[in-house]
Amino acid sequence: MNVRNATGNAPRLLVLGVALAIAGPACADAVTDWNATYDQVSPNVGPPPARAYLGALVHIAIHDALNNIDPRFGTYTVARPAAANASPEAAIAAAARDVLVARLGCQPVPPPANITACNLVANQYTASLAAIAGGPAKAAGIAAGQNAAHDILALRVGDGEDQPDPPYTRAPALGVYQPTAPNFPVPAEASVAGIKPFAMRYASQFRSDPGEIFDLGSAAYARDFNEVKTVGALSVRATAPDSPQTDIARFWPAGGANWNLVARAIIANRGMHDLWNEARLLALTRIAETDSMIQVFDTKYTYTFWRPVTAIHWTGSDGNPATTPDPNWMPLFSYPGPWSTPPYPDYTCGLPTASGANTEVLRRFFGTDNVAYSLTVTLPEMRSAPPPAFQAGYVLPAKTVTRSYATLSQAAAESASARVYAGIHFRSGCKLAVTKGEQVGRFVIQHYLKPL
Questions:
Q1: E strands in 132-222
Q2: pLDDT 10s digits, 212-235
């Protein structure tokens, strides 16, 4: 996952979702303010696995800084007691700032691609400290935050996060993943499986079992094949631009899968206003999402199962009389830019894995699945490749969409359907992904940052 702009390399494109400037609920405290700041600058470190990893670092530092001042929950790193009168707000600002500065490469001179992000962090830090009265409490808070940031960054040195992807060598064959047209010629993110987990004992702890759809002659495979071929086709979705299925396909990668945004909305809706509980919740969700990404890429590159676009284009027989190839078929996400079939195997699915991990932490944190929320997202314009590509050019205009969920389970299930409607995943892997993400989230909240 060696993708940070601080290295001077351009980040790889879309994985789980596209980060956009999305208006969230008004933030009223230091924890959610710095979570929003992290959200704004995290695209600079690369695709979603790298962003989740950064989020874990930032929010562990915030959590540990607070609990070193007033121990309410177990710290992730070794406890380092701070002055009891230390300013919590100063500790939060210093913890978040130091992690972000280190990971963005802001000092001594930021790389050109990160100048704006580094300036944003610097301005937020200056504003945060300006709002805090000077004196010993402020200085002690800054020290507590700096110590917490140092401890988590030091703990993660050599954890495999900066390793390059190994070469992909599997030749074209039935059921075997191949680079996905039209935007991604090189498979990516295999190195994510080699990162040391934050909570899981090892990357394969929650590896999925082989899928029933791996038997290409089975009824299960035919069912998944024919569903995505129909509901995920560019020609179907783009000619029904305002249908619920098209909206769902676009909503999740355009912001619906931003679980930081969701968490801030839920925090605001519930009027939490408790720095320690907010910090714990956000640290747990970031740890769970990061480990769920490690788990899902371990599964993906263990089985290397092909994507719908490869399966449907396959011109030879797949041995299943209930499937028919179509070399001209294109998924809804066949658009240039970030909208395309992502550059790694199908099984299991990344976005629903993250949804399962986050919803399980939220469910267990609040003690109920009935955590309702609404989210409004602006969907960017999408333009398909013009002729003489596979199909005539389609344009899906920008629009604003609000989606509401009565339960966390409803949201997670919809995230799985979104990838089928986009034409980029088979349903079986997406449904299982939610379950596997839930397993990771459950493990995290059961074993880490426990009440004292």
A1: none
A2: 999 999 999 999 999 999 999 998
